[in-house]
Every structure is written in C-alpha cells, then in structure tokens.
Amino acid sequence: MVSERGQASVELVAAVPLVLAIGAIAWQLALAGHTAWLTAHSARSAARADAVGADPRDAARSALPAGLRRGARVQRLRGGGVRVRVQVPALLYRWRSPAMVGATASLGRTRR
After folding, report:
1. With 86 labelled, which of 12, 52, 63, 76 sits at a CA distance of 20 to 30 A?
2. Handedness of CA 15, 17, 20, 26 (dihedral sign)
3. Could you tell me the pLDDT band of residue 109, with boundaries at 50, 70 and 90?
4. In terms of residue numbers, what domain contains 38?
C-alpha cells in the first residue's frame, strides 16, 4: 500500500502560487476599472471647464489623483469636447503598465 502522508501539504504548496496569481490578476483588473472611472470623471471636468472658457488641461489634471496626473494626456477635440488618456497603474509601484485608458466628454457645444 502507498502512504499518502504529506499529500495535503504538497497540494497546498502547488496551489498557493495559482491562488496568488489569480488574486494579482483580479487586483490589476480592479485597478484598470478604477482608472477608467477616474479618467471619465476627469474628462467630464475638463469638458465643463472648456464650456466656461477655463483651461481644460488644468481641470482634467486636478480631477485626477497625484499618481495619475504625471502620465495624463489631455486633448481638445476639433468639434468640441475633450479626450483624456491615462496610463493604468501596475500592481507593484515600480512597474510600468503599457495599458492606457481613455475617455471623451463633451457638453454638446461645437467650436467654430
């Protein structure tokens, strides 16, 4: 008969990296979703500022947390509106994520 002593320990050791990887992927997806939500909020703030004649770039950046302001790209659109693009933060602080999210907002005002 074959002894099964230690089998649970071996299975646990094999499963821990998989559980950690799934957790890291889930957390990174949550970071991407939150960044997309913040980018949309920033684009709406920039569109409101643009509608009243203020600088949309300053408004967009002020609506973002400090960690996202650095890589934010704000662009005024030809027909009115503003597009904001932000780099998604990586799970670990020192890593750079290649992914970017963007949002466009307009208050329906057309520029001539």
Report:
1. 52
2. negative
3. low
4. 7-105
- Give the whole-angstrom CA distance, residue 89 versus residue 38: 12
Count: domains in the chain: 1
Which residues lie below 8 Å from residue 98, measured CB to CB, with a gap of 6+? none
Q: Render pLDDT for 34-64 as a digit per residue (tens, 0 to 9).
A: 999 999 999 999 999 998 989 999 999 999 9
From the DSSP assignment, how many helices (H) and strands (E) are in the chain?
3, 3
Answering whether pTM is above 0.70, one says yes
- CA dist 3 to 6, 7, 12, 89, 105, Å? 9, 9, 18, 48, 66
| 94 pLDDT above the threshold of 80 | no
Is residue 1 one of the residues assigned to a domain?
Answer: no
Tell me whether residue 65 is in a domain: yes
Q: Is 91:57 a contact under the CB 8 Å cutoff? A: no
90 domain-assigned: yes
